[in-house]
């Protein structure tokens, strides 16, 4: 019995020494891409109040950039084709099909390259992820939470990594031009574990949503798991109640 | 000198507990949780846990108090009362890793103390029809120690056990000592728990000794004792306002972080009713005001809970039911109710189980909820991560909170009937 206790104490001491050994080790993260080069990314616009957007950002908000031709029900497709990774940066060039109603279409409207520094702390202080609508990127290197956490973003951004990697943005009136936007707007951008923008909401005071965009490709398990969860919950309650009534 | 007999009594009681196999297993489980959490902390969560926030808050409190709520200083928002940072000042002088280990050692010791207070309280509130030996009490205390929420509490370096310790200590004082001076001490201790973390804020109304006798249709109030309790609990809480007055920037930061900022809107797996509603509004683009939802939830559920407390038909140990209802209201109505917050509730649920008649039908509401919170709730947090793009509702925990609320409320207000077998305790 005594030998057993001694072994137990020795094991606990060994584990504690092992743990303390880690105490000063802070491992530098190696940021990379969360999705393959040829993976097709599709976002769908669930809601877009065009009149409100015109009022807030002026008539030209949808003439260029990542919101070009945006309206409710339309989709935007991206497909990467060149990936470059070197010591300091990682970049990928994407073919982009701007917002349209066609789901299947072979042609793309233009190509553009997006690049990030591998060490996010190298970005300047008060860094703005984007100076135009949508103010947030559609993808980020992974692990996305850590990457966002290390960026020294400007005061319009508030990163919340507690549960889901989330960027909250507050754009004050007149941030872009003296009269644009015409009122204060807010953005919540949520990223999935692959670093892809999974939900984008632009809203005004009172949480009135003006634009709602989602990443369309849900993982295959989401629907069956959700249905399974709800069914299992109700079945468990019915069985429990039946069992108790029998008693 | 006076502490020595107390210390030897504690050791004696722990030796008694140690003789029971399940308690030894529970302590071993705690040690596994502690070790596992520490390994996970140093491997993965070194920069990503709540203790980083507490540790920094201690430093900022000393060096730059005006910026205590400047969230740019933290990884995640610092949301507690400003005086809570005082608790972390001693830790902030140490190396971060060492401070974390010491803090969790303290958490482990607190767990042992919580078990002892739990034992003492159960011995007092236990109904006549319960077993006279202590085996069942030790079994439930062991369940508490084995609770899965301890894992997250250790990993995050959270402060829930301090809150639980102070809540149980104040409950112990209210149950054991009736003198006014002790009423004051008990409520000051509750006030300290609120400073540490406002989880117990909604326990304040239940300190009032207020009872409407339904049979005699008469309202009874012990005005003097109620005032003593209110003064006692509000003294520590209001002392934060001295800081708010001295540094007005603090008040704005505190209010914005807790009630009106972007934090309360964020999509997360909180099982509070308020969060389920805000997640629903978020998902379906329904305009909402988070503060209105909070106030409405507190008003409806809190009002109902307080109404039931005042109309209770059982006056014995009423403070226990008040505390339980208060914590349930908090978990149901505040935006963020996480798995590790359940450590504030499960000890009260264990006491409730012993205060109810041994074979009461109402235990069918409390017991399954206790086992769910203690062993299964964390699984549903994991499931939430898989379903959130389509179904961002961690609703099962909410269901069991309501079930417990119903069980306690019914016990408080229903007459001794067939529904509550075994009679009053």
End-to-end separation of chain A: 45 Å
Proportion of residues in helical segments of chain A: 10-25%
User: In terms of structural class, how would the helical and strand content of chain A be classed?
Assistant: alpha+beta
Instruction: Output the number of helix runs of chain A.
Output: 4
Helix and strand run of chain A? HEHEEEHEEEEEH
What profile does the largest beta sheet of chain A have?
Answer: 9 strands, antiparallel
The termini of chain B sit apart by: 38 Å
Sheet with the most strands: spatial strand order of chain B: 1-2
Round the Cα radius of gyration of chain A to an integer and report it: 24 Å
Overall pLDDT level of chain B: 91
Report the major sheet of chain B. Answer: 2 strands, antiparallel
Quick description:
The complex is a heterodimer of chains A (247) and B (425). Chain A has 247 residues and is α+β, with helices and mostly antiparallel strands. In chain A, 25% of the residues lie in helices and 30% in strands.
Give an overview of the whole structure.
The complex is a heterodimer of chains A (247) and B (425). With 247 residues, chain A is α+β, with helices and mostly antiparallel strands. Chain A has one domain (40-216). Chain A is built from 4 helices and 9 strands. Chain A has helices spanning 2-22, 50-57, 144-150, 222-246, and strands at 40-48, 75-85, 89-100, 110-117, 157-160, 166-171, 185-191, 197-204, 208-215. Chain A has a 9-stranded antiparallel beta sheet with strand order 4-3-2-1-9-8-7-6-5, covered by helices on one side. The longest helix of chain A is centred in the last third of the chain and has 25 residues, at 222-246. Chain A is globular, with a radius of gyration of 24 Å. Chain A starts with a helix and ends with a helix. With 425 residues, chain B is mostly helical. Chain B has a domain at 262-425. Helix content of chain B is 67%, strand content 2%. Chain B is built from 17 helices and 2 strands. A two-stranded antiparallel sheet of chain B has the order 1-2. In chain B, a hairpin with a 4-residue loop joins β1 and β2 (218-221). In chain B, α2 (21-43) packs parallel to α7, α12 (273-283) packs antiparallel against α13 and α14 (318-333) runs antiparallel to α17. The longest helix of chain B has 30 residues, at 96-125. Chain B is globular, with a radius of gyration of 21 Å. At the A-B interface, α1, α3, β6, β7 and β8 of A face α2, α5, α16 and α17 of B.
């Amino acid at each position: 019995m005594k030998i057993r206790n001694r072994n137990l104490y020795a094991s606990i001491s060994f584990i504690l020494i092992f743990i303390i050994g880690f105490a000063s080790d802070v491992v530098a993260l190696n940021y990379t891409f969360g999705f393959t080069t040829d993976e097709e990314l599709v976002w769908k616009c669930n809601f877009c109040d065009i009149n409100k957007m015109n009022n807030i950002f002026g008539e030209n908000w949808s003439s260029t950039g990542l919101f070009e031709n945006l309206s409710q029900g339309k989709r935007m497709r991206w497909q990467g084709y060149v990936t470059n990774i070197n010591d300091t940066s990682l970049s990928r060039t994407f073919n982009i099909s701007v917002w349209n109603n066609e789901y299947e279409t072979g042609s793309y409207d233009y190509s553009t390259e997006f690049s990030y520094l591998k060490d996010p702390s190298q970005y300047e202080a008060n860094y703005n992820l984007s100076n135009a609508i949508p103010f947030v990127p559609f993808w980020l290197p992974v692990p996305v939470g850590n990457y966002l956490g290390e960026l020294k973003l400007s005061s319009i951004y508030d990163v919340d990594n507690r549960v889901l990697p989330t960027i909250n943005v507050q754009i004050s009136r007149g941030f872009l031009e003296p009269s644009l936007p015409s009122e204060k707007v807010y953005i919540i951008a949520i990223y999935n574990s692959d670093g892809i923008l999974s939900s984008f909401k632009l809203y005004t005071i009172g949480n009135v949503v003006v634009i709602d965009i989602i990443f369309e490709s849900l993982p295959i398990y989401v629907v069956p798991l959700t249905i399974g969860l709800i069914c299992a919950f109700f079945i468990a309650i019915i069985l429990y109640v039946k069992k108790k009534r029998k008693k | 000198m006076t502490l020595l007999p107390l210390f030897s009594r504690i050791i004696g009681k722990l030796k008694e507990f140690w003789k029971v196999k399940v308690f030894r297993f529970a302590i071993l489980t705690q040690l596994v949780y502690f070790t596992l959490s520490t390994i996970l902390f140093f491997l993965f969560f070194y920069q990503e846990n709540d203790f980083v926030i507490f540790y920094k808050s201690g430093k900022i409190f000393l060096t730059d108090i005006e910026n205590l709520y400047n969230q740019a200083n933290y990884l995640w928002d610092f949301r507690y009362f400003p005086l809570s940072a005082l608790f972390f000042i001693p830790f902030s002088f140490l190396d971060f890793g060492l401070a974390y280990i010491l803090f969790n050692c303290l958490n482990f010791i607190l767990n042992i103390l919580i078990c002892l207070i739990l034992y003492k309280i159960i011995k007092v509130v236990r109904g006549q029809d319960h077993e006279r030996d202590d085996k069942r009490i030790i079994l439930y205390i062991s369940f508490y120690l084995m609770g899965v929420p301890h894992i997250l509490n250790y990993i995050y370096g959270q402060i829930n056990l301090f809150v639980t310790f102070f809540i149980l200590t104040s409950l112990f004082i209210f149950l054991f000592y009736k003198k006014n001076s002790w009423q004051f001490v008990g409520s000051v201790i509750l006030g300290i728990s609120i400073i540490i973390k406002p989880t117990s804020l909604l326990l304040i109304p239940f300190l009032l000794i207020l009872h409407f006798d339904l049979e005699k249709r008469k309202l009874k109030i012990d005005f003097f004792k109620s005032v003593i309790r209110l003064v006692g609990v509000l003294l520590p809480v209001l002392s934060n306002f001295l800081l708010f007055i001295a540094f007005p920037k603090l008040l704005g930061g505190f209010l914005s972080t807790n009630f009106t900022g972007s934090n309360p809107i964020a999509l997360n797996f909180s099982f509070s009713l308020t969060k389920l509603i805000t997640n629903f509004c978020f998902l379906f683009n329904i305009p909402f005001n988070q503060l209105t939802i909070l106030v409405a939830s507190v008003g409806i559920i809190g009002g109902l809970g307080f109404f039931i407390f005042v109309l209770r038909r059982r006056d014995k140990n009423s403070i226990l039911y008040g505390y339980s209802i208060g914590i349930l209201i908090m978990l149901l109505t505040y935006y963020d109710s996480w798995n590790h917050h359940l450590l504030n509730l499960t000890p009260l649920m264990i006491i409730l189980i012993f205060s109810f008649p041994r074979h009461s039908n109402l235990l069918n509401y409390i017991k399954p909820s206790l086992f769910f919170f203690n062993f299964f709730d964390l699984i549903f947090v994991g499931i939430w991560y898989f379903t959130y793009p389509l179904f961002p509702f961690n609703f099962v925990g909410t269901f069991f909170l309501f079930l417990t609320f119903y069980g306690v409320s019914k016990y408080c207000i229903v007459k001794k009937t067939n529904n509550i077998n075994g009679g009053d305790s």
